Amino acid sequence: MQKMKERILQGFFQATNERDFSQIPKLYSPQATIHTRDGKKAGPSAIIAIFQKWLEAFPDLQLEPLIHSVEEDQIVVHWRGKGTFLRQLRGISPTGKMVTMHGFTCFRCAHDQIIEHWAHVDYRPLGSDE
Q: Domain range for residue 37?
């Protein structure tokens, strides 16, 4: 179980940093629930769409896992993202500057896949009070 969760964690960050979403359907269950600020979304295509929005805003975005915890069926990771803010994101105007932001993501896993995904991003470095 521990190795499976490490594979999921590594695959998540590798997919984003290498812009290779071909592994996402292997990491996420087809019925995975993605909890977002805009409501629930489902399946691997939902997380790929979220990644793509972020990469439009930050074409050079790199995510780095800082600390993670694996407990029973959950993985929680504190991560840092760095990228140049070039396109609007969530109504926040781009600055054209390199930005460093932090976030937390929680994955609930079953049958070697992510079945639920929650994330919280600190948007303040983008110029937002959210």
A: 2-124
Q: DSSP label at 97?
A: S
Tell me if 24 sits within 8 A of 54, measured CB to CB.
no
Answer yes or no: is 130 within a domain: no
Backbone phi and psi for residue 21, each to the nearest 5 degrees, phi listed first: -90, 5
What proportion of the chain, given as a percentage, has pLDDT over 70? 96
* Mean pLDDT confidence for 28-38: 94
Residue 18 and residue 86: Cα distance in Å, rounded?
Answer: 19
- How confident is the prediction for the chain on average, in pLDDT? 93
Phi, psi of 57 (to 5 degrees): -75, -35
Full-model pTM: 0.89
52 located within any domain: yes
Give the C-alpha separation, 64 to 62, whole Å.
Answer: 7
